[in-house]
């Protein structure tokens, strides 16, 4: 390989961070059709395109004149014009630090006609008008300086590249090749440490590989707000460290593995499992939540080895959460469905596809029109669309609802009014959050429920002093990290609180209100939010939790909505859809919502259910959900894995995992996020194909036979341009009178919990927060709680939790996580947020073995 | 002279807690909080707080790190990062007295090396180790801003000037046998822990002990007095200066 | 013109209980404060500027100019921070000053705070000087009782709090931005500049940081006038200052003299190099600015003199070594200091000092390898001017200047241990030619 090719390979950097480029340079393959997209994503070139040209500063780098915004660091300007300067500590999304000194360049004219006497760190030196800069490409001074630093970095670095995870995608390796020496002049003793040491269950640290760039510690502090790793010691012994007994359990910890420019931080799960050059990378979208993170999924021999955050400046920038990064094995267990099942004599047995389809069709025919569909919120847009069309065209019903969670009619109205039929062009976006003057969070804990929204809000708070308020029962750690002001509110009391909030809330001229999915279950809240938005001239965005939720709304997986925001009850909207679908008639009345579907199945009004990826424990009352599934005359389950639903189904159709599908997610912004097939499917198909087969067998043409066709039809149908639904007008009720020793439950799902998507990843689970119960000091006193545990009690049972007395907690409220491992409040106590629960001191013995356990 | 350690086994944090538990009680916590309240931003109190912790615990312990972190609303990792950065914070149990011998270039050459070697041999310890009787923790320290008194030995951070190996051995022996030892440019030696308490900002009333200055510090002054040299008389300044600036 | 020695800051050091407020006042202490409080703050800044009082902490930046960099429209409070971290090898002037006369510093602090609009000043003292800290703490308490500190100082509407803050052992905390991080309860690592402390220093507020001696000099300027101050010293280096003479000198100690005195003059007063020996090399400004030799005895020790011969005035810490000293050994021990004190933030300092120590240790032991000397110089070149802060420049400078003046000694390190060429027992302070070495103390 010629010197120049080597250098080009080592330094070529399509994305802002050469790490991303280093992989491509290292020889990894890519099967992503639009990898070239990355080239257009340099944030600086975008910034320039958006800037007033008169404000730009002109400098000359290696003879090339370039105009960049004032304050731009030289390293950014240089890489934009294809003159990448090697670097370690620099990262475009971290504050400049200038620690590693690898990026030294020569400034032959400081803009006032004088050369600067010493080489300057290009990552911390801002451009000055008229500056003349020479990088290692044209300056012997810069080249010598860089060579010297590189040599220093290597003297104590082990030469274990052949067994290092980073070998092949390592900036240090690449830069040693590009600017380093062929041989070493160092003949003395290398610094060694006992190795590796765990920073958490997921992350291992090999200290002797570390170049002390402090990217990881700065990430933890600046970006995640979790400074649980910090530099310790000083001088030659400086090292990254945790405090013993407090591991780096941050929701975002995995990012540090990715930004580490050497192999010092490795993933416990991935360590020693593959070489980068044997991996095939695919760009896709994370299926775990509605944040829409771009992912780079690396597989080898048809097995996903690891997932990295993709680099999409509009969405996740270069970050993702640990769930998105590490939780990808849940579909790989022995409970994976690989062939259809039909029930015979009460037992499920394997069946052929034709047989299963026949059984299903018979069941549906027998039910007549009395069918309900519960597709769940984890589908691609295309799959959702197929479900929606299947319900209306094939089964002739509006009894379809994706909401497998507590919900209200008010919420359906809100979604029809404020969400359905909007696109990213007219929605609140991540960028808008960054530019907002004030943000109000309502029933939304971004860190738990939409982690990338959390990161963007935190960035806005750190960089632009964004003010955040949160309508919540206590000031969570996540809220603290946003500098948020608590608007203390008990569950159920949101609407009343919001009606009276005006004087305490100064959202400014560019305010945004973000509502979470829990708002939909608290009567009057969404109505109050819309009214507040009008009073404050603020914009509203709905931030659902699941990756499929936003597209489900768009596809019409609601009893009141057809695709594109069209109202079931609006004749002209129906005609629009009828024409597109080439049908004479669509049902005219709104259908039943999910709770009602289950209720109707239980009382025999509905004869059959078609069920997607849902869990009984997701519902307001898991017992009711189970009863509906059990009493329904006929249940078709379309699933990836054995579940409580398949257990109760008459026919089960196995479907592919997300890494095996193509399609589109819509993130909370309404932005289209491509889902690309990463590995070859297990001979399995997606939901859409199952529904097509059923439709075919029922003699109805669904009109689309694969995701691409579905997407084309979605696009052609487009969004509804006609009148929108009216805003909901629900009035709030007062919170139920609570009895003595009773308090109201506040609860939500923490990011890491017992969710099914996280199954099979024990290391990730080890980093999850310990389930606790939080109450205010006054409530603790009133309930006589002075121990370190508390029992929550309903007529169904009781559960013990470690007790946290929290000064910010609203009196008369107890918070616990909704879906913690072990017996849960949902399952065991039948509780949702806003329900009344009894509190009692836990017996001393109960606390020991019953963290979140049965008391 | 300069041994190389290629292994840094016990680095990155402080030694484990004493099995008997921490000695930091409610009154220490109150004092730690008092320190935190002395500053516009409470984190500023961390260095003094760690000094105070040392006066109670005899070193920095994991429990102390957690307590400081809680008071200051920062993470234990952040406190650990600070506690391991500064050389005066100790991770292992300390002796009653800390004896530091300056071995930076000038003191080393003027005899600090010999003093250090003599003490190591006499006490049977290496650098940063405590004598078996628990009396003395020995350390080679860096330049202690007393170069005109080289070679310098510090006892609980009090000066012992122009030392020799013999004087140093006598000094540690007197410390070991609890004799009264007075610093020639400081106070009566108490203990390392008591010194740490003063450093934390809780005075011990000994400021008035000892001289204002040692001989070396006064050398120029005495010469000037002897020769009648003094700064110009302001009333009789020769040439007016050029008015710059304004 | 002016006398050879001009004790001002050190004038009361020999007084009985000089550190007590009453004794300080008896000598006219706190009169300058009364004068200052009668003037407009801008006038005091003007006087300090006109006196051309340059920083005594090493860099020599004009104090009045620094003060005038404070932004006028910043809503945050202004802080004054006194740098008493004195740790540069050879430097030993601030510590005796505060020990003997803490009120000299404190009066300077109050006047300077008044001038820059500061209402909370901090005195950051290295932790390893217990008695100095005691005296400073006590002086502050006395000043509060006497109404020199607190609310409404001396009946004016000027308020000032002073906090004495002990460090915990880190030379780098003398670097002003590392000091600020340390004072904020962090690891003492230098900060990125800009922003400079004057704009965003302590708690991101406008902050003035000055050396002890700089601040302690302010009262004398206020009392005696600009002309008085500028009548001492040389063209660009006005006033009197403390010179610290140490090492193989018959009588080491502190000398307060007008700027521009020479080492020859100082040595004369100190009885010369110890009996029977000759000067081999010396540091004009602590070890960080490198060494000079006996050729340089007549270099005026002002801000320009040492600079003209490739070094700097630094902290006026004149460490003298005689011909018994091995340059290799001295160099190694300096570099060990820099290695020990490197904060670890930047690569050249952290790794470079690690490497240099190993290399120099080999040379000291006579186990050098061919090419080692050039490597020493090349590594120093790769450190100098490449590091984050000036600490590593000190590392490179001491190595380069040592090799520059004593290359043959380093070359001898390829085959002969330094202790054979320069028997180490001869360098000790107690060594007398012909006398028996003391108590088996040889290394
Ligand atoms: C490594 C390093 C150590 C320093 N140590 C000290 C010190 O101990 N005392 C001091 O006053 N200045 C020290 N300085 C200089 C300070 O950064 C700063 O320039 C000085 O405090 C400013 O005060 P002055 O202008 O009054 O001299 C040091 C600088 C460096 C780079
Ligand atoms: S030169 Fe670098 S490593 Fe050394 S003290 Fe300065 S910042 Fe720290
Ligand atoms: S990349 Fe510029 S100093 Fe590290």
From TrEMBL, chain A:
GO biological process terms held by the UniProt record: ATP synthesis coupled electron transport
Family matches, as InterPro entries: 2Fe-2S_ferredoxin-like_sf, 2Fe-2S_ferredoxin-type, Asp_de-COase-like_dom_sf, MoPterin_dinucl-bd_dom, Mopterin_OxRdtase, Mopterin_OxRdtase_4Fe-4S_dom, NADH_UbQ_OxRdtase_75kDa_su_CS, NADH_UbQ_OxRdtase_ferredoxin
Residue stretches making up the 4Fe-4S Mo/W bis-MGD-type domain: 279-335
Cofactors named for this entry: [4Fe-4S] cluster; [2Fe-2S] cluster
Cross-referenced PROSITE patterns: 2FE2S_FER_2, 4FE4S_HC3, 4FE4S_MOW_BIS_MGD, COMPLEX1_75K_1, COMPLEX1_75K_2, COMPLEX1_75K_3
Source taxon at top rank: Bacteria
Domain 4Fe-4S His(Cys)3-ligated-type: 141-180
Record's GO cellular component terms: membrane
Region (Disordered): 1-28
Record flagged with keyword Membrane: no
Record-linked Gene3D superfamilies: 2.40.40.20, 3.10.20.740, 3.30.70.20, 3.40.50.740, ADC-like domains, Dimethylsulfoxide Reductase, domain 2
Protein known as: NADH-quinone oxidoreductase
Pfam families for this protein: Fer2_4 (PF13510), Fer4_Nqo3 (PF22117), Molybdop_Fe4S4 (PF04879), Molybdopterin (PF00384), Molydop_binding (PF01568), NADH-G_4Fe-4S_3 (PF10588)
Cofactor: how and how many bound: Binds 1 [2Fe-2S] cluster per subunit.
Compositionally skewed regions (Low complexity) per UniProt: 8-28
Domain 2Fe-2S ferredoxin-type: from-to ranges: 55-139
Gene Ontology terms for molecular function: 2 iron, 2 sulfur cluster binding; 4 iron, 4 sulfur cluster binding; metal ion binding; molybdopterin cofactor binding; NADH dehydrogenase (ubiquinone) activity; NADH dehydrogenase activity; quinone binding
Organism this protein belongs to: Raineyella antarctica
Function: NDH-1 shuttles electrons from NADH, via FMN and iron-sulfur (Fe-S) centers, to quinones in the respiratory chain. Couples the redox reaction to proton translocation (for every two electrons transferred, four hydrogen ions are translocated across the cytoplasmic membrane), and thus conserves the redox energy in a proton gradient.
Keyword Phosphoprotein attributed: no
Automatic annotation (TrEMBL), chain B:
Domain of life: Bacteria
InterPro entries (UniProt xref): NuoE-like (IPR002023), NuoE_dom (IPR042128), NuoE_N (IPR041921), Thioredoxin-like_sf (IPR036249)
Chain coiled-coil ranges: none
Keywords: 2Fe-2S, Iron, Iron-sulfur, Metal-binding
GO molecular function, one term: NADH dehydrogenase activity
Region entry Disordered, spans: 1-23
Similarity comment: family membership: Belongs to the complex I 24 kDa subunit family.
Protein name listed in UniProt: NADH dehydrogenase subunit E
Organism annotation: Raineyella antarctica
Automatic annotation (TrEMBL), chain C:
Similarity comment: family membership: Belongs to the complex I 51 kDa subunit family.
Name this polypeptide is given: NADH-quinone oxidoreductase subunit F
Record-linked PROSITE patterns: COMPLEX1_51K_1, COMPLEX1_51K_2
Pfam families in the record: Complex1_51K, NADH_4Fe-4S, SLBB
Residue ranges occupied by any NADH-ubiquinone oxidoreductase 51kDa subunit iron-sulphur binding domain in the UniProt entry: 328-373
SUPFAM superfamilies on file: Nqo1 FMN-binding domain-like, Nqo1 middle domain-like, Nqo1C-terminal domain-like
InterPro entries: ComplexI_51kDa_subunit, NADH-UbQ_OxRdtase_51kDa_CS, NADH-UbQ_OxRdtase_suF, Nuo51_FMN-bd, Nuo51_FMN-bd_sf, Nuop51_4Fe4S-bd, Nuop51_4Fe4S-bd_sf, Soluble_ligand-bd
GO terms (BP aspect): cellular respiration
Cofactor entry: [4Fe-4S] cluster; FMN
Membrane-spanning parts: none
Gene Ontology terms, MF aspect: 4 iron, 4 sulfur cluster binding; FMN binding; metal ion binding; NAD binding; NADH dehydrogenase (ubiquinone) activity; NADH dehydrogenase activity; quinone binding
Protein's job: NDH-1 shuttles electrons from NADH, via FMN and iron-sulfur (Fe-S) centers, to quinones in the respiratory chain.
EC annotation from Swiss-Prot or TrEMBL: 7.1.1.-
Organism: Raineyella antarctica
Alphabetical UniProt keywords: 4Fe-4S, Flavoprotein, FMN, Iron, Iron-sulfur, Metal-binding, NAD, Quinone, Translocase
Catalysed conversion reaction: a quinone + NADH + 5 H(+)(in) = a quinol + NAD(+) + 4 H(+)(out)
Tagged with keyword Isomerase: no
């Amino acid at each position: 390989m010629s010197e120049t090719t080597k250098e080009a390979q080592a330094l070529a950097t399509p994305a802002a961070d050469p790490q991303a480029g280093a992989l491509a340079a290292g020889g990894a393959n890519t099967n992503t059709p639009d990898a070239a997209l990355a080239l257009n994503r340099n944030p600086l070139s975008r910034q320039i395109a958006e800037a007033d040209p008169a404000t730009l500063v002109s400098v000359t780098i290696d003879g090339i004149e370039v105009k960049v915004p004032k304050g731009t660091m030289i390293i950014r300007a240089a890489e934009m014009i294809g003159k990448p300067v090697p670097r370690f500590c620099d990262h475009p999304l971290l504050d400049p630090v200038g620690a590693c000194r690898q990026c030294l360049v020569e400034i032959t004219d400081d803009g006032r006609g004088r050369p600067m006497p010493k080489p300057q760190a290009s990552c911390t030196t801002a451009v000055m008008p008229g500056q003349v800069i020479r990088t290692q490409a044209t300056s012997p001074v810069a080249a010598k300086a860089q060579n010297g630093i590189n040599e220093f970095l290597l003297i104590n670095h082990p030469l274990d590249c052949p067994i290092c995870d980073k070998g092949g995608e390592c900036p240090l390796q690449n830069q040693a090749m590009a600017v380093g020496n062929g041989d070493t002049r160092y003949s003395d003793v290398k610094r060694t440490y006992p190795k590796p040491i765990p920073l958490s269950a997921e992350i291992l640290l090999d200290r002797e590989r570390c170049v002390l760039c402090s990217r990881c510690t700065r990430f933890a502090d600046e970006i995640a707000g979790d400074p649980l790793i910090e530099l310790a010691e000083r001088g030659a012994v400086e090292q990254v460290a945790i405090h013993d007994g407090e591991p780096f359990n941050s929701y975002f910890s995995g990012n540090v593995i990715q930004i580490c420019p050497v192999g010092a931080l490795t993933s416990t799960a991935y360590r020693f499992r593959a070489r980068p050059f044997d991996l095939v990378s695919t760009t896709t979208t994370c299926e775990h939540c509605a944040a829409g993170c771009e992912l780079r999924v690396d597989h080898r021999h048809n097995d996903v080895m690891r997932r990295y955050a993709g680099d999409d400046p509009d969405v996740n920038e270069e970050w993702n959460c640990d769930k998105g990064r590490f939780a990808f094995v849940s579909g790989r267990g022995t409970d994976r469905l690989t062939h259809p099942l039909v029930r015979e004599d009460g037992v499920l047995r394997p069946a052929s596809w034709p047989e299963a389809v026949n059984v299903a069709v018979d069941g549906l025919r027998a039910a007549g029109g009395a069918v309900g569909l519960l597709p769940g919120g984890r589908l691609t847009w295309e799959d959702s669309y197929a479900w929606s069309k299947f319900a209306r065209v094939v089964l002739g019903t509006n009894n379809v609802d994706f909401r497998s969670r507590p919900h209200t009619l008010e919420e359906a109205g809100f979604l029809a009014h404020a969400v359905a039929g909007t696109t990213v062009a007219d929605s609140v976006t991540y960028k808008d959050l960054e530019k907002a003057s004030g943000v109000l969070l309502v029933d939304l804990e971004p860190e738990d429920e939409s982690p990338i929204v959390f990161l963007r809000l935190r960035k806005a708070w750190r960089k632009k002093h964004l003010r955040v308020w949160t309508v919540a029962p206590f000031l969570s750690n996540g809220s603290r990290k946003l500098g948020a002001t608590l608007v203390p509110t008990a569950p159920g009391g949101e609407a009343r609180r919001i009606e009276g909030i005006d004087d305490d809330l100064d959202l400014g001229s560019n305010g945004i209100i973000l509502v979470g999915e829990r708002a939909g279950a608290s009567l009057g809240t969404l109505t109050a939010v819309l009214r507040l938005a009008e009073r404050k001239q603020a914009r509203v965005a709905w931030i659902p939790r699941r990756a499929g939720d936003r597209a489900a709304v768009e596809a019409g997986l609601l009893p009141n909505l057809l695709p594109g925001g069209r109202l079931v009850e609006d004749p002209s909207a129906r005609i629009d859809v009828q024409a597109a679908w080439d049908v004479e008639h669509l049902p005219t009345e709104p259908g039943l919502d999910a709770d009602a579907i289950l209720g109707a199945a239980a009382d025999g009004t509905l004869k059959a259910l078609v069920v997607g990826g849902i869990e009984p424990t997701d519902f307001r009352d898991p017992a009711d959900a189970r009863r509906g599934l059990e009493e329904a005359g006929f249940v078709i389950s379309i699933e990836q894995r054995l579940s409580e639903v398949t257990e109760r189904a008459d026919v089960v159709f196995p479907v592919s995992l997300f890494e095996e599908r193509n399609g589109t997610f819509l993130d909370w912004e309404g932005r289209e996020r491509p889902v690309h097939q990463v590995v070859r499917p297990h001979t399995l198909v997606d939901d859409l194909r199952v529904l097509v087969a059923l439709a075919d067998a029922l003699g109805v043409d669904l009109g689309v036979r694969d995701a691409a066709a579905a997407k084309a039809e979605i696009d052609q149908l487009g969004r509804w341009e006609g009148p929108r639904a009216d805003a909901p007008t629900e009035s709030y009720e007062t919170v139920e009178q609570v009895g003595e020793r009773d308090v109201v439950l506040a609860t939500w799902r923490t990011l890491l919990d017992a969710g099914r998507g996280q199954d099979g990843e024990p290391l990730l689970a080890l980093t999850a927060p310990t389930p606790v119960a939080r109450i205010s000091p006054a409530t603790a006193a009133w309930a006589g709680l002075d121990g370190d545990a508390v029992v929550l009690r309903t007529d169904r049972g009781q559960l013990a939790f470690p007790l946290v007395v929290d000064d910010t907690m609203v009196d008369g409220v107890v918070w616990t996580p909704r879906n913690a491992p072990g017996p849960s409040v949902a399952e065991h106590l039948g509780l949702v947020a806003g329900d009344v629960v009894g509190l009692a001191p836990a017996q001393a013995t109960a606390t020991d073995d019953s963290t979140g356990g049965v008391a | 002279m300069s041994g190389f350690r290629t292994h840094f086994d016990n680095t990155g944090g402080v030694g484990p807690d004493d099995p008997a538990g921490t000695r930091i009680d409610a009154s220490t916590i109150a004092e730690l909080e008092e320190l935190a309240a002395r500053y516009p931003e409470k984190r500023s109190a961390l260095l003094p707080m760690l000094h105070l912790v040392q006066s109670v615990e005899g070193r920095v312990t994991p429990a102390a790190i957690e307590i400081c972190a809680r008071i200051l609303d920062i993470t234990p990792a952040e406190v650990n990062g600070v506690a391991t950065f500064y050389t005066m914070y100790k991770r292992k149990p300390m002796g009653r007295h800390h004896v530091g011998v300056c071995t930076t270039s000038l003191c080393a050459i003027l005899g600090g090396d010999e003093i250090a070697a003599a003490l190591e041999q006499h006490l049977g310890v290496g650098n940063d180790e405590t004598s078996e009787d628990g009396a003395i923790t020995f350390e080679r320290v860096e330049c202690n801003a007393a170069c005109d008194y080289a070679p310098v030995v510090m006892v609980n951070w009090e000066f012992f000037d122009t030392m020799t190996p013999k004087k140093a051995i006598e000094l540690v022996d007197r410390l070991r046998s609890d004799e009264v030892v007075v610093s020639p440019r400081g106070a009566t030696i108490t203990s390392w822990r008591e010194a740490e308490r003063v450093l934390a900002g809780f005075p011990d009333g000994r400021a008035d002990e000892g001289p204002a200055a040692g001989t070396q510090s006064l050398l120029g002054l005495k010469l000037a007095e002897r020769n009648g040299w003094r700064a110009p008389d302001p009333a009789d300044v020769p040439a007016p200066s050029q008015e710059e600036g304004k | 013109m002016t006398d050879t020695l001009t004790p001002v800051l050190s004038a009361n050091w020999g007084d009985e209980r000089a550190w007590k407020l009453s004794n300080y006042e008896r000598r006219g202490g706190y009169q300058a404060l009364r004068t200052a409080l009668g003037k407009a703050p801008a006038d005091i800044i003007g006087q300090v500027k006109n006196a051309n009082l340059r920083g005594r902490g090493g860099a020599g930046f004009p104090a009045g100019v620094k003060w005038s960099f404070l932004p006028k429209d910043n809503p945050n409070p202004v802080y004054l921070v006194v740098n008493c971290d004195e740790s540069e090898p050879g430097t030993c002037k601030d510590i005796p000053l505060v020990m003997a006369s803490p009120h000299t510093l404190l009066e300077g602090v109050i006047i300077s705070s008044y001038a820059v609009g500061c209402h909370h000043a901090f005195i950051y003292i290295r932790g390893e000087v217990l008695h100095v800290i005691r005296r400073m703490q006590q002086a502050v308490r006395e000043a509060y009782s006497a109404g020199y500190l607190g609310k409404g100082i001396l009946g004016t509407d000027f308020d000032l709090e002073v906090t004495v803050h002990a460090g915990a052992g880190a030379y780098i905390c003398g670097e002003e931005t590392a000091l600020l991080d340390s004072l904020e309860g962090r690891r003492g690592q230098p900060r990125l500049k800009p922003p400079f402390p004057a704009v965003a220093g302590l708690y991101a507020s406008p902050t003035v940081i000055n050396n002890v001696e700089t601040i302690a000099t302010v009262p004398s300027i206020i009392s005696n006038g600009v002309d008085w101050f500028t009548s001492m010293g040389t063209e660009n280096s006005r006033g009197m200052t403390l010179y610290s003479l140490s090492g193989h000198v018959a009588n080491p100690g502190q000398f307060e003299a007008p700027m521009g005195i020479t080492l020859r003059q100082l040595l004369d007063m100190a009885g010369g190099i110890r009996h029977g020996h000759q000067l081999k090399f010396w540091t004009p400004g602590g070890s960080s600015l490198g060494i000079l030799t006996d050729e340089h005895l007549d270099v005026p020790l002002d801000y320009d003199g040492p600079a003209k011969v490739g070094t700097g005035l630094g902290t006026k810490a004149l460490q003298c070594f005689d011909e018994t000293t091995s340059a290799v050994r001295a160099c190694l021990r300096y570099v060990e200091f820099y290695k020990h004190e490197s904060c670890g933030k930047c690569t050249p300092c952290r790794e470079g000092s690690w490497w240099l120590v190993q290399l120099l240790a080999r040379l000291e032991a006579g186990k050098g390898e061919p090419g080692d000397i050039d490597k020493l110089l090349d590594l120093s070149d790769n450190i100098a001017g490449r590091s984050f802060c000036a600490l590593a420049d000190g590392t490179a400078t001491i190595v380069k200047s040592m090799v520059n003046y004593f290359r043959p000694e380093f070359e001898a390190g390829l085959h002969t241990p330094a202790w054979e060429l320069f028997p180490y027992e001869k360098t000790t302070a107690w060594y007398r030619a012909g006398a028996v070495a003391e108590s088996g103390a040889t290394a």
